[in-house]
Amino acid sequence: MEADGNWTLVNEFVLVGFTTDPFLQIIFFVLFLASYILTLTGNLGLLSLVYLDSRLHTPMYFFVGSLSFLDVWYSSVYTPRILSDCVSMDNHMSLAGCAAQFFFSAGLTFTECFLLAFMAYDRFVAICNPLLYAIAMPKVLCVQLVVGAYVAGFANSIVHTGNTFRLYFCGSNIINHYFCDVLPLVKMACDDTRMHELILKATIGCNLLVTTAIIVSSYIGIGAAIVRIRSAEGRRKAFFTCSAHLVSVTLFYGSILIMYSRTNSQHSPTWDKANALFYTVINPLVNPLIYSLRNKDVKAAFKKVWGRFLAHKRMTPT
User: Fold this and answer.
1) Least packed by Cβ within 10 Å: which of 211, 225, 281, 301?
2) How far apart are CA 252 and CA 234, in angstroms?
């Protein structure tokens, strides 16, 4: 703490996490460790399949692999810190550490918003122009879209982080959350936050408006194309192509919209932590399942790679 006039400025924070009960901390540690291992295994496994199997070298699976790579990085921003807080008696985080976690959290969240929007456009092209799909979505364009998602995401994060950490934090340094999020930080600010809240709402609102518009317009076009398909089997296959992406978008966007669309009086630490789990921990965990559980191409690629591994193991002398 540092004194500044009548204020005691905060230069470090204490994260409360989920509980202070030692027994419950052990349970949470086991649960989050298992979820983190499954998240890394699922996403790295899916990313490896996309890389190793030539049948998955299509724009659709390029974006799926890019999402898996993003989710590995994304989950690593939160879960290791949660695990550390469950077993450590010292839950302190420096101001610089909080700003760094905040920067990567915001950057990767915005990046995933744009990446999911570009994946919706990819599905629109695949269903509405299947014969021209390879021409309309060349590899160069796919790479540009993914790079663009990261550039847009971290450009917004610079604005978001600079806007938040220009505030002075004073009084209690306890954050009743499991990571440095904007809502508890703003509550700790001792100066006027009206301009901060205006910039915050404009930044989040503009980005959600742009990405949501891309997703909604893409699915309006997809819906119109599906209606024109005469056979029930053709309509089922077309819908199945988009179902995984729809579930992923609903989980990710739904939890974010619920979090940031409510007024300050409607927020509570317990509710905010539970809601944030969906887009920080659960979404990266279930995305590999969503995109592979009922996907014949991914299952075939797994069997092929696993068969090669077993054959190589049998041929290797012991």
Assistant:
1) 225
2) 28
Q: How many CB atoms lie within 10 A of CB 195?
A: 12
Per-residue pLDDT of the chain (318 residues; tens, 9 = 90+): 454 545 567 778 888 888 888 888 899 999 999 999 999 999 999 999 988 888 888 999 999 999 999 999 999 999 999 999 888 877 888 889 999 999 999 999 999 999 999 999 999 999 988 888 889 999 999 999 999 999 999 999 999 999 999 888 887 788 888 899 888 888 888 888 888 888 888 888 889 899 999 999 999 999 898 888 888 777 887 787 788 888 899 989 888 877 766 666 556 777 888 888 888 999 999 999 888 876 777 877 777 776 766 665 666 665
**Residue located via tokens 């160069």:** 140
What is the token pair recorded at 210? 């742009």
The H-or-E segment that residue 3 falls in is strand 2-4
- By the 8 A CB rule, do 262 and 272 touch? no
* Residue 13: burial class (beta carbons within 10 Å; 0-12, 13-18, 19+): buried
Q: What are 301's two structure tokens?
A: 């690629």
User: What does the alpha-carbon distance between residue 111 and residue 131 come to, in Å, rounded to a whole number?
Assistant: 30
Answer yes or no: are the C-beta atoms of 56 and 116 closer than 8 Å: no
What one-letter code names the amino acid at 308? Answer: R
Q: What is the DSSP letter of 190?
A: -
**What ranges make up the beta strands (E) of 80-218?**
92-94, 174-175
